[in-house]
Write a structure and sequence with these properties.
By secondary structure, the protein is an all-beta fold. It contains no helices and 11 strands. A hairpin with a 6-residue loop joins strand 4 and strand 5 (49-54). The N and C termini lie far apart (40 Å).
Length: 127
Amino acid sequence: QVQLVESGGGLVQAGGSLRLSCAASGGHTFTFMNQNMGWFRQAPGKEREFVAAISWSGGTTDYENFVKGRFTISRDNGKNKVYLQMNSLKPEDTAIYYCASGRAGGLQYYPNGYQYWGQGTQVTVSS
């Protein structure tokens, strides 16, 4: 059974930084290094929204406009981990952040393009 476990969330002041991690494990047909990965977030009362995605090799990344220049997605296939470095955080970045593994094909930008999800980690940015 595939498991994605996020960590690194917390409370930070506006302008601060956090680094989220997502560790992948399990599944005899799941090979982390073959999976495109993504980060989404969901704030209270809002739909889950795309944040960033990275290709299986790490060679291609993409970001939603509201995080471009502030967030960086990366991965370590040797450790089966994907990361989200978040700088210059704003109160509107407050949400539960989820990592997910993509279905076959290129980078995905909608939740239905992802097959496995973590349980999420809370990020709270105070003003």
